[in-house]
Amino acid sequence: MRATTDDGRLLLRLKPQDVTVRVDGEPAAVANLAGPRDPLILLVVFDLVGDLNRIDAARSALAEYVKAADTDRYAALLQAQDGLRVILDPTRNRRQFVEKLEAAPLSGFPGLLDSVEQSASIASSMLQSPNVRVAVLYLTDGEIEDYRGDYVSTVVNPSDSGDLSRRFRDRLVQEKINSITANLARLSAPLFFVHLEEQTDSLNVTYQNGIRAFAAATGGSAYFARGLADVATLVERAVA
User: Fold this and answer.
1) pTM of the full structure
2) Rounded distance, CA 16 to CA 18, Å?
């Protein structure tokens, strides 16, 4: 959002009294405002199990951002495959972050669907600290069929050509997405996603549309690379 005065001048520093907020239609007090010049904590979540060339391109682009970031920028690294866990707590130590980034595990099962609510909740709790911004960036390349949990509806009766599960194979995926989206909408931290390999089959289109819904529900963005050349550009765009 760009804030301007009545005559169109850009406001670089807003005060709480400069804005009016309503929650459920009722006026709400604004305790604090943070903008691009305020400290940032970026939680980077690795959910990568696929093409090493694309992963290396994503890591290189992210490393360049971290190396050039202002001193009030903190970065943390988490892993989503097979359950969310912290690899590196928020730090301003650029060298340490890049080392952990380059050594981050690239195997296991995709974990975005199973971890996104937890990572968003962690980020939102960190926003309770004054004068700090927090955002989550997922780097992911998983396909829905590769999840450890069975999110793909199976055919209930293989001998019945009229079995509805044949026509609604994405039902379980969509139900999971709807539940997650509703829960994310109650949280405060924005979620950003860079998927390193866009898929076009119907099940993965449903899955990737779900990722878009997660970003929209939290005020973030989602990007999907069609080719290797897109990866670095989209990572740069997300962190910008």
Assistant:
1) 0.84
2) 5
Give one DSSP letter per residue of 136-151, joined into a string: EEEEE---GGG-SS--
- Do 54 and 147 contact (CB within 8 A), yes or no? no
Q: Following CA atoms 216, 89, 113, 185 in sequence, which dihedral angle do they give, to the nearest 10 degrees?
A: -30
Which two tokens mark 123?
A: 């980020």
82, 108 Cβ separation under 8 angstroms: yes
DSSP state of 165: G
Q: What is the pLDDT of residues 215-228, one digit of tens each?
A: 999 999 999 999 99
d(CA 92, CA 30): 29
The string of pLDDT tens digits covering residues 181-224 is 999 999 999 999 999 999 999 999 999 999 999 999 999 999 99
Distances (CA, A) of 12 to 1, 28, 49, 131: 12, 23, 41, 15
CA distance 174 to 238: 25
Q: Residue 10 burial (CB < 10 Å; 0-12/13-18/19+)?
A: exposed
Q: Are the CB atoms for 152 and 166 separated by under 8 Å? A: no
Task: Provide the residue type at 105 as one letter.
Answer: P
- In degrees and rounded to multiples of 5, residue 44 shows phi and psi of -95, 125
Q: Chain-centre distance of CA 121, in angstroms?
A: 12
